[in-house]
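Bench notes, afternoon.
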Amino acid sequence: MVCGEIDNTVAGRTVGWIWLLGRGDPVELALDGDCWRDLAGARLSFRNPRPTAQPGLALADQQVGLVGDITASRKCRVRRGTIDEFATAHALDEDLPVVWGNSLYLEWFSDSDGRVVIESGDFELKVGERTWEMDGDAEQAQKLANLQAMRDFLQGRIARHRTTGGSRGREADDEFAWEQRLRESDRLTEAYREVLEKYLGDPDAERKGAFVMGWDGLLEAMAEEVDRDEESDESWRADDGEGESWKEEDGGCFEPHPFQVEAQELALRAYDLVREHRGLPAAEQLSSSLMQVSGKLAGALGGEFEMEKGYVLAILKRCLGWLNEAIAACSELARGEEDHDHQRALEALRDEVFMLREQLTNFRRDLLEE
């Protein structure tokens, strides 16, 4: 993307023009709804100082639909450090310091292209004078409308791909039978991956994720959990510190599997590293593959119930494929990276993904031999 403008000077209506590299005419936006409070009532101009071609971004000339979250104050994590600092941190198995900064986040739901997101912390921004002011209540109402738009979009995608056949219940529970069942759940995983990326770092991510995925039962359970936590907190004070081991005794402490913890950390690191390369196929592949591994391992190895062996084997086989794709994507990005610090960070990430693949390979072999 080269540059663009977002105009929300008319309440309830957001229009815009976005110039993409290699296209003469801009993409025009005509959206119902308002931006967040920082941009509501104003006209925003933005410019990309280092535009690059994005082969996967093929938008219709006219974008008509609903606004999503449109703001210039979304928080993003940026890793900072010199070559020497990076080398020291990598040798000590430590992360470089993370600096939180604002980024431009443009999201809308198009009648022609579905959900569209443009995000960057590197754009040069200029906000004009406001023609009207949005108060806190109006902003909260708009954010709730954006949540509903995200929910409607995801539910439409899931329903559109839902199979019409009956139950696949069958006695066979080996790896191949489970593979067939897993193919039917992939649409849910893809939808949830979008949710994880959108609400990454949001303190209310779990509740928002449950809402937009349509998991109303989980929302109710979370509300009940809050009530129980408040009751437990009062009981803790009444016991004067004697209830210190309640989590272990009552089974209330959920310990995720180490493989899943490692995969989630790798996915978060990848998301940070490819932020400035969003739109490139290799960047999307790297982020998507590691998100898939993290989510699938959480379902297969986490929780209080032991999953069937065939299910775990099928999941592990898929994870190995995604890890191979992540390694290849990471290598491709590292080869084309001009910034030396960023290149070394990608190479370090690739090495750790390779190590996780080896661990899962050995784990899967042990299961097959049981």
